[in-house]
Amino acid sequence: MLTSRRSFFAMCGAIILPGVSLGELIRTPWQGEGPFYPDRIPEDTDNDLVKNGHSTIEAGGKILNLMGSLVNRDSKPIKGMTAEIWQTDMNGVYLHTGSFGSKMRDDQFQGFGRSITDRNGHFFFRTIIPVEYPGRTPHIHLKLWNERENVLTTQLYIQGHSLNKEDFLFKRMTIAEQKINSMKLLPTQTNDSTEYVTSVRLVVFS
Description:
Largest sheet: 5 strands, mixed
CATH topology: Protocatechuate 3,4-Dioxygenase, subunit A
Number of helices: 3
Strand order of the largest sheet: 3-2-5-6-7
Protein name: Protocatechuate 3,4-dioxygenase
Shape: globular
Organism: SAR324 cluster bacterium
Family: Belongs to the intradiol ring-cleavage dioxygenase family.
Distance between the termini: 33 Å
Strand content: 25-35%
Number of domains: 1
Keywords: Dioxygenase, Oxidoreductase
Number of strands: 9
Mean pLDDT: 91
InterPro entries: Intradiol_dOase_C (IPR000627), Intradiol_dOase_core (IPR015889), Intradiol_RC_Dioxygenase (IPR050770)
């Protein structure tokens, strides 16, 4: 089920992407795509990963509303870029035939989604807070591309998670890069449940 920008802003409330001056811009680090990019793209590839297809049943896990902003080296927004994310479900299983524990996969979790950056460079996803699995700290894979090239492939982490310091990919980044690739999760109340919101800024120099 597609999540609209209007409903997303209502969810985020007062969350605003921080302003960044030209001198403070740090290019978002590239990180490996990894072996679990979906080997079969699902029919449903919208930006709401919590509901799969036309199902009204939501996936297990804590819901995370992710807003991103894509800018260039001059801090100008980049529109019309395809943003993709993929991650494990609450059981640590990817949407991939080679994923560990595939028999435990939550079929209600879409596992992969796409969003197009708007004129302000913004993209939006409704997903779940990532979980750890053997050998990796919780993370979300993210790729940005257009019809000509792959502009960025990276991974997003949970700010302050105890497993970050043990993760081989997280440790490869500088402290500054670790900071910009980390998501600060803020709780927000929606009807009778608690969801989380976060925002990230991505900078590309291409």
